[in-house]
Amino acid sequence: MSVGKSVPRVDAYDKVTGRAKYTDDMVEKNALVGKVMHSTIANGWVKSMDISEAEKIPGVVKILTCMDVPDIQFPTAGHPWSTDASHQDVMDRKLLNRRVRLYGDDIAAVIAEDEVAASRAIKAIRVEYEQYEHVLDPYEAMKEGASQLHDEYPNNILKHSGFEDGDFEEAIKEEGLIRVEGTYETPIVQHCHIEPPVSYCYMENGRYVVVASTQIPHIVRRVVGQALGISWGKVRVVKPYIGGGFGNKQDVLYEPLNAYMCQQVGGRLVKLEISREETFYATRVRHAMTFNIVSYVRPSGRIVASQCKVVSNQGAYASHGHSVVSKSMTSFRQLYNYEKACKVEGYTVYTNTAAAGAMRGYGTPQSVFAIESHAEDIANTLGMDPLEYRRMNMMPVGYTDPFSKNVNYFDSLNQCISRARKAIDYDQKRKLYQEQTGPVRRGIGMALLWYNTAVWPISLEVSSCRMVLNQDGSVQIQLAETEIGQGADTAFAQMAADTLGIPFEKINTISTQDTDVTPFGLGAYASRQTYVGGMAVKKTAVLLKQKILDYAHEMTRMLPEDIDLVDGNIVWKTNKNKILLSLEDLAQEAFYSMEHAQHITAEATAQCKSNAYSLGCAFAEVEVDIPLGKVTLLNLVNVHDCGQLINPQLAKMQVHGGMSMAIGYGLSERLMYDEKTGKPLNDNLLDYKLSTTMDHPDLSADFVENYEPTSAYGTKALGEPPAVPGAPAIRNAILNATGVAINKLPMNPHLLYPAFRDAGLI
Amino acid sequence: MIQRKTIQCTINGKQVENVVDVRASLTDMLRNDYRMTSVKKGCEVGECGACNVIIDGECFNSCIYLAVWADGKQIRTLESLTGPGGELSDIQQAFIDEGAVQCGFCTPGFIMTAIEILETKKLYTRDELRKLLSGHLCRCTGYENIITAVEKTMLQRLEA
Fold this sequence. Notes:
The complex is a heterodimer. Chain A is of the alpha+beta class. Chain A folds into three domains: 27-132 and 197-273, Alpha-Beta Complex (Aldehyde Oxidoreductase, domain 3); 288-456 and 610-758, Aldehyde oxidase/xanthine dehydrogenase, molybdopterin binding domain (Aldehyde Oxidoreductase, domain 4); 462-607, Aldehyde oxidase/xanthine dehydrogenase, molybdopterin binding domain (Aldehyde Oxidoreductase, domain 4), CATH 3.30.365.10. Chain A is built from 20 helices and 27 strands. An eight-stranded mixed sheet of chain A has the order 3-5-1-12-9-10-11-20, sandwiched between helices. The relative contact order of chain A is 0.13. Chain B folds into two domains: 4-80, Ubiquitin-like (UB roll); 90-159, DNA polymerase, domain 1. In chain B, strands 2-1-5-3-4 form a five-stranded mixed sheet, covered by helices on one side. Chain B has five helices and five strands, in the order ββαβββαααα. By secondary structure, chain B is an alpha+beta fold. The mean pLDDT of chain B is 97. In chain B, strand 1 (4-11) and strand 2 form a beta hairpin. Helices cover 32% and strands 17% of the residues of chain B. The chains are: A alpha+beta, B alpha+beta. At the A-B interface, helix 1 and helix 18 of A face helix 2, helix 3, helix 4 and helix 5 of B.
């Protein structure tokens, strides 16, 4: 069996030798170079553009402006298309935008023979703007008189929604309840995949071929079609290896503009590389959110009712829009069990900042920071042990989501807590860190994690797989679910090997997606791939195996039900698995038989109509230098129940990466804007503080494996969950060390120093 | 008028002569003229370390190193580590064994810094290794297994 083993990843050799080909490694060197011109105001209108000087620059081939582009607004979110118009993604941008809505909006594009000419041309384009007052804060944006970013959305409210379980007002009338209120704020952060977005496009036989660093090739195909107003079959998208995505490349970024540039130069090859700086301000970011939570608890610790109001900063364009805060709201409802009532309300608001989209955790890093900070605040208010408070109130075993019918089958949260608590020596350290004095203090804290696997029943969940038998008994497998560094190609090969009964080494996962030949699927997002993709792998493998056994029946005359495929051999099941012939012999016969030649292949689509909770926790230990306002993370332990592990080593690697992202989110990362101009201040990797080797302790990742019964291979979400609980765990550890509750991220010295001073510690 | 200059240097042991645009970076030259696909572009301003190569025994971000400066220099890229029959070096194998590779984009740069560290033949503590590797950004791995891969290879080489 291959599932459950830490086999080396299938792409490792190519990646350690530099042979793995990423988008820019494949483009022909005679490609024309595209460059985007970005606005230098945050809010306004392009009155005019003078390109006459720019056009004279040697090497400039064509200049496209926001006055030229088709009058088509298109969506960019990496969601499956909905045939229900009311459920379709918001279409609020054009290929280039005359109405400027952020500092760095796309207003023109240059195609040139080389990069220098393209850059010079952009500098030579004269733009006259009509400037409006910009608004960076969603609360300000909702006020009367604030500049309106999109005419269709009054007060800049993209969407407002809410729900109420029970009757909140009635519930809080109970006598003796203790009221706890908190406001928790999270910042704008960026994905910072190491490979910036890049694509190239050329025309072949009247069709557009777009090669792109994307997580979602089939969705890119559809959106390029929509944006250019051409039929979708005219677009072919190829996705090679990509240097990380984390949700930014779950958006259709510059692929449509690249295709348009190609169209405008007669189908010639145009490459469009996005710089690191552009990646920060002009692609996507994580929504900054502010949560106000009011809870009513009994002195015993039981939470009776809770109300949460959340405002999410959408930035200038809708991208994934309100669906991100919707997931935040669902986590609020489900991570804790409110005895009588839970009332939640959320706003998604346009502002003149970078468009916010999907980023690892999809609204839950924000909400879980708020929920788990608040849980700690309640426990502290009651003088209760934080673990005890959580045990009393967290999602119980057997909980069923009224909407998705998703069941919490196992006692995963308690199991994860127990394991992490022991690993970090929580009880002992909690005692040790009581009543500390002095400028340097230590603390320990934790946070729970809730996540949903995949997106059903909100959206379509579907995956298709193709398997093709080779002459030597090896098999290609092909899915639209993409390898983006997480190890999907390897995991799918392990799954296929087991269901088929073929050695792992004989499975070739076709890593590159090509929408002309790759069966339809949705791509890498929502931590869905092993869950939804796994269903397609299993269904297709069962089909292929049946075809192989049917052919074996012809060759052996034994009934298909009496034979099996085990370890690459056809065996006589009812006679101790005696080997009858090898799959290689069978394949050779099937390929070249003069009697019955057959290319044995299989293809199937699996539509997924279920979902699974992925639960876990993080425990953090910190040392706080109070006068410096500086936190050193001493230890971080994550424990997850993501069901059966397909590949324990790969799973651990995923957790490490998520923990690292959580460390940055908690302690250092924030994309800042100049209030006066709306200009991003730290749109580069020097000033934007991504965590380095120096900012990490050794990371400890562990698992509880409860086989998920709704999953083809027992798995559930793991890609995103590790990035979720770290920041609140660190926050609660700082609280434990200093007694100061920090309700804002990142908890850097700029924030901590005044907080400690105000608390009288300095 | 584009200014060009003829330079001579050694790339992975092979003597080459090239006419380069004086504005070109060494990253551009290695990627465009020699198709060294291990030299990655992550920021092009010396922040991320993805384009790191060894020049006369010392690591540099090749994106902020002009191609003309390479005149007379010995340049080593990740491609030099793989044997003629495709054999992996110990550090490449360690990156695989320890699970230090995910998207793979930062990997070549990290491995070249690891080579610089290993070739000092010194014993470093894990904290010292952290510092020596801190010029590279990785968003996938949390650095954990990368540090372990370098540490294990260092210990193996020192034992041998």
